[in-house]
Design brief:
Layout lengths: L5 E4 L2 E6 L2 E7 L5 E6 L1 H6 L7 E3 L2 H7 L6 H7 L1
Antiparallel strand pairs: 1-2, 2-3, 3-4, 4-5
Length: 77
C-alpha cells in the first residue's frame, strides 16, 4: 500500500515514507518548510531536525519524490 500525504491543516502536511517522517508547513512569509525526521537525525542531532526552505511546492516535489502531487493537493483546497 502506498503512503499518502495527510493534511493536518490548510498549511501543514505530514507523510511517513521509507523510514522518514516528513512534515511540510507553510510559513507566515509564504515559503514552505520541510522537516525530515529519520534515524540519522535522531542519532546525530539529538532528535532536532533543521527545516529546509522552499519558495514553491514545485521545488518540494523536485527535491522529494514522495511528495509528488502536493502542489495539486494544495490547489484543490
Amino acid at each position: 500500500m502506498a503512503n499518502s500525504i495527510q493534511m493536518l491543516s490548510d498549511s501543514k502536511f505530514h507523510l511517513k515514507a521509507r523510514g522518514n517522517d516528513f512534515t511540510l508547513e507553510k510559513g507566515a512569509n509564504g515559503k514552505w518548510y520541510m522537516t525530515v525526521m529519520n534515524a540519522a537525525v535522531e542519532a546525530y542531532n539529538n532528535g532536532f531536525a533543521m527545516p529546509k526552505e522552499f519558495d514553491t511546492l514545485e521545488q518540494v516535489e523536485q527535491a522529494y519524490k514522495s511528495w509528488k502531487g502536493i502542489s495539486q493537493l494544495v490547489n484543490l483546497n
